[in-house]
Design brief:
- This protein is α+β, with helices and mostly antiparallel strands.
- The chain has a domain of 259 residues: DD-peptidase/beta-lactamase superfamily (Beta-lactamase).
- It has 14 helices and eleven strands.
- It has a six-stranded antiparallel beta sheet with strand order 2-1-11-10-9-8, sandwiched between helices. Strands 3-5-4 form a three-stranded antiparallel beta sheet.
- α3 packs parallel to α7 and α6 crosses α7.
- The longest helix is centred in the N-terminal third of the chain and has 16 residues.
- The protein is globular, with a radius of gyration of 20 Å.
- The two termini are 26 Å apart.
- 47% of the residues are buried.
């Protein structure tokens, strides 16, 4: 069984042993912890939780601040549940990759062969691989995204409208971050399996990996353990924002997953282990290699200048990258991860064997450099 190493109250000898086991300096890692504590004390973020692991050995999660800005709010705990936003994307892609493993489809199958109504308005050339690598030509969000959320439209209505979209560019000729394509991947899972994406993820990944505090959509999770995203006073008036019942239950394949730092460590470490965790295999070694390898090399129509700064595997963002700062500056080439707009980031560095899971409740944490600075401190703790 997996055990978590506690960082607090260690003797000098204990810390030497810990460093040898994990390859991480506890003194240096404490800089990241102190930085997060300072951010909370100065009011820059309401709350945060971080878990770092080295050589597959997790150091006990540390948590800071409160679950919301309410005066009676509970403190963030290691088992506090966060809305992880776009960290959901590689999880949805993993679900489709499991179907690839089972021979249900090929990465270069046209999407319309699974979803016939997707074929119109120039989308016949879009493949499953394009959806996974942000090269489909679809926009990030529907133009009427806000209006649909105001109307509490169901996910199926979003899918229907995405199928009727015109492309921003022909598939396989550019890279443009897009959530619409991930929505279609979720629909592919449902069309092929007959199960909802939340149920498929629960049965194939969350339950086998022991991710008992993770769900696409709030599901059966305890709402009193869910941290509130700091959306600001104006956004709080909207009945569709991140903290409201509509979005919590929506289950967006591109950004609706709830999880804890401990659970997300299990998912990320599975890729470091070649598809298994704690004796349970959920993906093949071949799949984990494909998902964490540069897929843009297979697309000759994308200019090299564009490829060099936006490197994508299947669902995972890869280093080096020029336009995402959440990974920081010090992770090794070949590292993979993702960040979320709610103030979350996960990354794994195969060279140093370090996994970092950092969840905050501050949506501006990436833009303000908070995630990147903390990631640098974690990467610098490797010895």
């Amino acid at each position: 069984m997996l055990s978590y190493i506690k960082l607090k109250e260690k003797t000098g000898e204990d810390k030497v042993i810990l460093a040898k086991l994990t390859g991480i300096s506890t003194k240096r890692l404490n800089r990241a912890h102190q930085y997060l504590e300072e951010l909370v004390c100065t009011g820059r973020i309401p709350g945060a939780s971080i878990l770092v692991a080295g050589n597959g050995i997790p150091i006990e999660a540390r948590s800071f601040g409160n679950m919301s800005l309410q005066s009676d709010s509970q403190q963030v705990q290691p088992d506090t549940i966060f809305l992880v936003a776009s960290v959901t994307k590689p999880v949805t892609v993993a679900a489709v990759m499991l179907l690839v493993e089972r021979g249900k489809l090929l990465l270069d199958d046209p999407v319309y062969s699974i979803i016939p109504e997707f074929v119109n308005k120039g989308k016949e050339a879009i493949t499953v691989r394009h959806l996974m690598t942000h090269t489909s030509g679809l926009p990030d969000m529907l133009p009427e995204n806000t209006q649909l959320r105001e109307q509490h439209a169901p996910l199926k209505e979003f899918v229907r409208r995405i199928c009727d979209l015109e492309l921003d560019f022909p598939a396989g000729t550019n890279i443009q971050y897009q959530s619409c394509g991930i929505a279609i991947l979720g629909e592919i899972v449902e069309r092929i399996t007959g199960s909802s994406l939340p149920e498929f993820l629960r049965s194939e990944f969350f339950s086998p990996l022991g991710m008992h505090n993770t769900s696409l959509g709030i599901g059966d999770l305890r709402t009193d353990r869910v941290a509130h995203v700091n959306v600001g006073q104006e956004m709080q008036k909207a009945d569709w924002e991140w903290n409201k019942s509509y979005w919590r239950n929506f289950g967006a394949p591109w950004g609706g997953m709830f999880s804890t730092v401990n659970d997300m460590f299990r998912f990320c470490q599975t890729f470091m282990n070649g598809g298994e965790f704690d004796g349970t295999r959920v993906l093949s070694l071949a799949t984990t290699i494909a998902m964490t390898s540069d897929q843009t090399t297979l697309m000759p129509n994308i200019p090299s200048k564009i490829k060099s700064g936006r490197v994508w595997g299947l669902g995972w963002r890869l280093q080096p990258t020029s336009d995402w700062s959440a990974f920081g500056d010090l992770v090794s080439p070949g590292s993979f991860g993702h960040y979320g707009a709610t103030g979350t980031v996960v990354w794994a560095d195969p060279f140093s064997r370090v996994v970092c899971i950092l969840f905050t409740t501050q949506p501006s944490a990436s833009a303000e450099g908070i995630l990147g600075r903390c990631s640098n401190m974690v990467a610098a703790s490797v010895i």
